[in-house]
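Letters spell out the chain; the tokens describe the backbone. To illustrate:

===
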Amino acid sequence: MRHLAGLLIGLVVTAAVLAGGGWAVQQAAGSSVATAPDSQTLWIALGSMAAVGLVVGLVVAGRVSPLATFLPSMLLLAWTVVYALDVNRALSFIPAEPSMHQLVREAGAGARTLLTTGVFALLGVALFIPVLMPSRWSRQDDDLDEEYETTPESSYY
């Protein structure tokens, strides 16, 4: 059950990094050119980046199933490898059709920036590190589950 919850958390983290992070980067990059740094859009974008960072940090540091970090790390690293091997194929995964919603296109443009600058590779490696720790795969022992054996006073051990 813990790993099923980790899989669902991994889907949320993946969506947060791709959609939330991509949108925030696009808004921050677009806002820095068009308006002053203290505009409302820039502050919202910075808050979104902080929220995505908080979600990623909680999943990396928290004691949840390693699937919560494995799923987004594999997606980000695989997309980076595809980008390294075939740039056009990797960029074709980004939604840019005019029929798509404006928010989806903005998130895609931000994801393009994160992919081409190597931020997805960096995040993918950082999210993969908790998967390598054996303690994340085992169940946390409860004190109630331990059976304490009492030995008679006359025993040697």
Summary: Helices lie at 2-34, 40-61, 67-85, 87-92, 102-116, 119-128, 134-137. The longest helix spans residues 2-34. The chain has a mean pLDDT of 84. The CA atoms of residues 60 and 129 lie 8 Å apart.
